[in-house]
Write a structure and sequence with these properties.
It contains five helices and no strands. The chain has helices spanning 10-17, 21-28, 35-64, 76-106, 110-114. α2 (21-28) packs across α3 (35-64).
Length: 147
């Protein structure tokens, strides 16, 4: 995806995972890669691509609005389409930033990730004395009525 492109959240990834982004991509393909790292890098790649799209549309609008440019070349329709594209790219960028930020906030700290999780299954054993056990009822037997 977008491994070589920078994103605005690369510093956050470094802070959470403790390694620069290129090293994180290498670690993500290893046998011990965590699913959270893979998800974070996927979101980061989408974010980097979207941020590049935002910059591309911004630069195109700036070029179209260059004071040195012939005013006869200006097109309201073209600028309207660029504004729609920019809005869509900004919405996508904001969504990816939010999703990646939430993922990074909910992840355990790196020192907690390194510890193996131990689970212990508790079991309870109880022995009932014969006098405490309820008397079995007979199937189909009717109770005798008392006078």
């Amino acid at each position: 995806m977008s491994r070589s492109r920078a994103s605005t959240m690369d510093a956050d990834l470094l802070k959470v995972f403790g390694s620069p982004v290129p090293e994180l991509y290498e670690a993500a393909v290893g046998p011990d890669a965590s699913p959270a790292l893979a998800r974070a890098l996927e979101l980061r790649s989408f974010l980097a691509l979207t941020e590049e799209q935002v910059a591309h549309v911004r630069d195109r609008v700036h070029a179209d609005m260059d004071p040195e440019r012939d005013m006869g070349e200006l097109s309201a329709d073209k600028l309207r389409v660029d504004a729609q594209w920019l809005e869509a790219a900004l919405d996508a960028r904001d969504g990816y930033r939010t999703a990646l930020g939430e993922l990074l906030r909910t992840m355990p700290s790196p020192d907690q990730q390194a510890r193996p999780v131990r689970t212990t299954q508790l079991s309870a054993t109880a022995v009932m004395s014969p006098s405490a056990a309820p008397a079995p009822t007979r199937a189909g037997a009717a109770r005798a009525r008392r006078p």
